[in-house]
Design brief:
The structure is a single chain. 30% of the residues lie in helices and 34% in strands. With 182 residues, it is an alpha+beta fold. It has 2 domains: 32 residues; 137 residues, no CATH class. The protein has a 7-stranded mixed beta barrel. It is elongated. The relative contact order is 0.18.
């Protein structure tokens, strides 16, 4: 048997083994369920978190003492969820640019909520209506800052194009760390 034939036989054998060991594919219903945002999957929990976030006040005074943060605009109330732990804090928006339907945002968490998680799921919640707007992935970058680069829903993109980092933001954040649902 030549080497090519032996490799081919080995690869086909390994493919059959892998197929036999693989779990069955998820059903279409399960795939659709997974595609739904977390607030649709857990509506009672989501309502409780949205209400708690609505009551959360952003910290203004003590954070202004640090020169770097003093240049930033209004703090955004945030709720950080890591496992069973929930921490109310605020996020300092360091950079915001909405152009061509895309938002680029950099923020840093204040105080005790500072994380070193590589990624966070950021749920943007409407300041006015306390309802979820969309989710995006926030990636850790330098100096404990998180970056978000996401396509916005058309209406938000139009409304947020003129936002400046020094203005009060029209959203609050729920930041989820870890692989589990809230």
């Amino acid at each position: 048997m030549n080497d090519e034939r032996a490799v081919s036989v080995l690869l086909h054998w390994r493919l059959r083994e892998a197929e036999a060991e693989a779990p069955p594919p998820p059903s279409a219903a399960r795939l659709l369920e997974r595609a739904r945002p977390w607030w649709d999957q857990l509506p009672e929990r989501a309502r409780a978190l949205f209400e708690r976030l609505r009551r959360t006040q952003a910290a203004y005074g003590h954070a202004q003492a640090e020169a770097r943060r003093a240049r930033c605009g209004h703090p955004v109330p945030a709720l950080v969820i890591r496992g069973q732990e929930e921490v109310e804090t605020s996020a300092r928006v360091l950079y915001l640019d909405v152009r061509d339907g895309r938002m680029r945002l950099r923020f840093q968490l204040d105080g005790a909520a500072c994380l070193e998680e590589e990624t966070l799921e950021a749920t943007f919640v409407s300041e006015a209506a306390t309802e979820p707007l969309f989710c995006a992935q926030a990636s850790l970058s330098v100096d404990g800052e998180y970056r978000i680069d996401v396509d916005l829903p058309e209406e938000l993109a139009q409304n947020w194009t003129r936002l400046k980092v020094t203005e009060k933001m029209p959203f609050r954040l729920i930041l989820r760390a870890g692989p589990t649902l809230v």
